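Recall the central idea of this unit: under ordinary conditions, the amino acid sequence of a chain determines the structure it adopts. In this exercise we apply that idea directly, starting from the sequence alone.
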Amino acid sequence: MKKTIFSLLLLAALPLGLAALAHPIHVGLTSLTYQPEQRAFQVVVKLFRDDFEDAVEASLGVRLGLGTDQELADWTQWADRYVKERLEVVVNNVNRGGSALRLTGHRTDHEALWLEYVLPERGPVRRVVVRNRLMTEHFDDQTNLLIFVHGPTEEAYKLDGTNTEAEILLANP
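Accordingly, the structure predicted from this sequence is:
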């Protein structure tokens, strides 16, 4: 019994020890949630902070220095630019692209970065296409999970370097 408990404790502690090492996978999460009272989508992007910094540096030539003494005062502008160039939303066949995304907030911790956006949408939503190329040009194994919520519709998609697009059709907007 003691061996079993020790083994379980060891297994429970293992992820904590591994978190201190470089993570072996590259995963991002993007959620689009329609807020009818605001007539807008809330868009939240969550990525591993170190991978995001590497991707921004490789693409834009700027090191953000998040969480360090060298953190750029305008890091959100660079982060916003990177996201808007790689995350595209088409609503009802109208490309709402990165330019329509409005950065409303952000937060970081030692591992993750969250960027929060609003995407205004006035009319009834019938069709949404999301193209997510975040970090796919830098990491061959990059997976970008997409969660879409609109009223009773909740769907999830797995996107990657070869499949960067998800199409959502809403029967009753």
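The chain has a mean pLDDT of 86.
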